[in-house]
Amino acid sequence: RHVIRLRGIRKLYQMGQQQVAALDGIDLDIDKGEFAALMGPSGSGKSTLMNILGCLDRPTFGSYELEGREVAHLSDDELAVMRNRHIGFVFQNFNLLSRISSVDNVALPLIYAGVGARERRERAMHFLEAVGLADRAEHMPNELSGGQRQRVAIARALVNEPEIIMADEPTGNLDTKSTKEIMEIFQKMHGKGRTIILVTHEPEIAVCANRQLLVRDGVITRDEGRGVVLDVV
Ligand code: ADP
Ligand code: ADP
């Protein structure tokens, strides 16, 4: 069953007198448990598409159903609730708060969800353990390597137990060894049934997914599913 369904999605930007179509007719279904890699050259529309999928922005035309609900029918507040409940975000630059510890960074989404302090800490610790960083709970982000910071950020994305993880170039700032560790975590999440959408420039990363989507000039020009055997831990 699909968690995401896009039909005829267009996103237009006004550039002076001209209208530019950043997305020019996207039809896409993503099923529960799929691991999709989104590829394409700079300026092809990947960020625009991710912003719409992540409910950070709305399409100009077309239908987006997230978990069976038409996003166009939701108010901005309802959209924010959908985003917080259903989607965990991972960024290229980690986006951790530098003045609080790893465990407090991981627990942040739970503050917004109204979870009490003790349970926040327990749940944050659980997900720090899941990414292999329980022993770094009290470290500040600047005391961690890039790969460790991204693992903290992944734990933060998971802590609300969202249905969908969206990651924009999550290994873009990491060395080969850390990249491998991060991709193993994504594969493990996929093995546990999470739906993952990942933007990457690198084919070696894209093959870790079970589906490869190519975006060009605002449309999806290739959609390949590959029977990659995942090394599920
Ligand atoms: P990438 O996703 O490749 O890192 P960006 O998303 O930062 O790149 O930008 C892609 C293109 O979109 C760039 O050519 C940039 O100039 C253009 N762009 C981004 N935001 C705006 C904007 N607000 N107005 C006009 N052009 C924009
Ligand atoms: P990518 O992430 O693949 O690099 P983007 O989604 O950032 O591509 O951009 C797709 C197209 O939309 C580009 O031509 C870009 O210049 C344009 N664009 C993106 N954001 C804006 C914006 N806010 N205003 C005007 N044009 C934009």
UniProtKB/TrEMBL annotation:
Keyword Transcription appears in the UniProt entry: no
GO molecular function terms listed in the Swiss-Prot or TrEMBL record: ATP binding; ATP hydrolysis activity; transmembrane transporter activity
Domain ABC transporter, first and last residues per copy: 4-232
GO cellular component: membrane protein complex
tRNA processing in keyword set: no
SUPFAM superfamilies xrefs: P-loop containing nucleoside triphosphate hydrolases
InterPro entries listed in its UniProt record: AAA+_ATPase, ABC_transporter-like_ATP-bd, ABC_transporter-like_CS, MacB-like_ATP-bd, P-loop_NTPase
Keyword vocabulary terms for this entry: ATP-binding, Nucleotide-binding, Transport
CDD domains: ABC_MJ0796_LolCDE_FtsE
Domain of life: Bacteria
Entry-linked PROSITE patterns: ABC_TRANSPORTER_1, ABC_TRANSPORTER_2
Family statement: Belongs to the ABC transporter superfamily.
Protein's name according to its UniProt entry: ABC transporter ATP-binding protein
